[in-house]
Amino acid sequence: MKTLILSVLFFSVHAQAVTFEADKGHTKVGFEIEHNAITTIDGEFSDYDFSYSFDNGAISNIVFTAKVDSINTGHPKRDEHLKGDDFFNVKKFPEIKFVSSKVEGSMNDTYKVKGRLTIKDMTKDFTFTAKCKGPIEDLFGGTKMGCKLSGSLDRYDYNLKWNKPLNKIKGLLVGKEVTLAIKVEATQKK
Questions:
Q1: 88's torsion region: left (phi>0), alpha (psi -120 to 50) or beta?
Q2: Residue 39 pairs with which residues in a beta bridge?
Q3: What's the confidence (pLDDT) of residue 187?
Q4: Does residue 145 carry a pLDDT above 50?
Q5: Residue 5 and residue 144: Cα distance in Å, rounded?
Q6: Distance from C-alpha of 81 to C-alpha of 63, rounded to nearest angstrom
Q7: Exposed (0-12), middle (13-18) or buried (19+): which is 45, by Cβ within 10 Å?
Q8: C-alpha span between 190 and 98 (Å, rounded)
Q9: How far apart are CA 24 and CA 3, in angstroms?
Q10: CA–CA dist 41, 105 (Å, integer)
Q11: What structural domains does the chain harbor?
């Protein structure tokens, strides 16, 4: 009930769209990929920007960029390999970028966030599934929202094709499917 009252007050005060930006102390931009055909490896990007507009209970204009040089899988040698020519070629393609074109759904429901994802020299249609909550007033008088976004891609579609066959078993060292997982706590921009 309190969230409903805050939402009504929020809507009555804000007649136009407001911008929310990621609170980087409470946000994680991560991914997961199969490794050795038996497990998965997690990673994240620590340098990123994430923002969206919020108006009348609807989210739109989602823009996300990640600096590839900030990739961290917990293994420095692997991270350097990912930054090199076999994978991201960070010197030539320093950013990953997503720009939404259409957001379907409403608060406290599942959104479908459609847009264009650019990795290296490839830009393709991409869809995130998102669950969002808020807005709420935080303990310091600011306005916050939370969203979880997830989506999967075939990394070969983005020219991330390096791989090695495994000895004695069928399979590859690195899986083709990558799951993106973004957990964002966003603050209304003033």
A1: alpha
A2: 35
A3: 96
A4: yes
A5: 15
A6: 27
A7: buried
A8: 24
A9: 24
A10: 31
A11: 2-188 (2.40.128.110)
- Stretch among 38-42, 43-47, 100-104 having the lowest mean pLDDT: 38-42
Give the confidence band of 106 by pLDDT, cuts at 50, 70, 90.
Answer: confident
pLDDT of residue 37: 81
42 band by pLDDT with thresholds 50, 70 and 90: very high
Q: How far apart are CA 187 and CA 146, in angstroms?
A: 9
Joined together, the tokens standing for residue 189 give 């921009």
**Strand (E) positions, the chain?**
18-22, 28-35, 39-45, 48-55, 58-67, 71-72, 95-104, 110-119, 122-137, 143-154, 174-188
φ, ψ dihedrals at 128, nearest 5°:
-95, 145
pLDDT tens column, 58-86: 899 999 999 999 999 999 999 999 999 99
Q: Report d(CA 124, CA 146) in Å as an integer.
A: 26
The pLDDT of residue 65 is 98
On whether the CB atoms of residues 134 and 142 are closer than 8 A, the answer is: no
